[in-house]
Specification:
By secondary structure, the chain is of the alpha+beta class. The protein has five helices and nine strands. Helix 3 crosses helix 4. About 8% of the residues have low confidence.
């Protein structure tokens, strides 16, 4: 093999290796999003399923479940959204109307900490504002707007329950 052939072979091999590495990265990122691996841009994991029953709200991320207790009226408001009940507007509907009438919208909800037996969350608005809220209120608004819910990765690992053993 002469020098020119060898260089061409090396360029083609490097290109092939780069394509293989890029493909592995894309496949890995896809798998991570399916099983609830943290979104590192927010240091949080996206919630894929919310379940409310009794006085308990369960947030499912794929491999973890974070459960928190709340009052029955909060559970009713969350379940009302699941069941598409048409009743008089509730407090969460009023709050959403106020946010939207100000020209903003709910972008995302982030449950970020647990202190002294209480969970804390923020509602992130489209105008960049961050509003402190009880997680149950924030979840009720996210369900009304189809906004994503994210749980802080460290909170999920310290307070959540591991339900699978994939890559975590």
């Amino acid at each position: 093999m002469n020098k020119t052939s060898f260089r061409r072979f090396m360029r083609e091999s490097e290109r092939d290796a780069l394509i293989i590495v890029a493909s592995c990265v894309i496949i890995g990122l896809s798998l991570y999003s399916l099983i609830g691996i943290p979104d590192t841009s927010f240091g949080a994991v996206e919630v894929h399923n919310i379940h409310a029953e009794g006085n308990l709200i369960s947030l499912h991320t794929g491999c973890h479940i974070l459960s928190m207790s709340t009052s029955q009226p909060q559970i009713s408001s969350i379940n009302q959204e699941f069941e598409n009940e048409t009743t008089r507007p509730m407090t969460h509907d009023l709050a959403l109307d106020l946010v939207e009438s100000s020209g903003s919208s709910v972008e995302t909800v982030k449950i970020h900490s647990f202190q002294n037996g209480t969970y804390y969350s923020d509602i992130i608005l489209s105008n960049g504002e961050k509003v402190d809220a009880r997680p149950s209120d924030a979840l009720a608004l996210s369900l009304r707007t189809d906004s994503p819910v994210k749980v802080d990765r460290n909170l999920l690992h310290s307070e959540g329950e591991m339900v699978c053993d994939h890559f975590v």
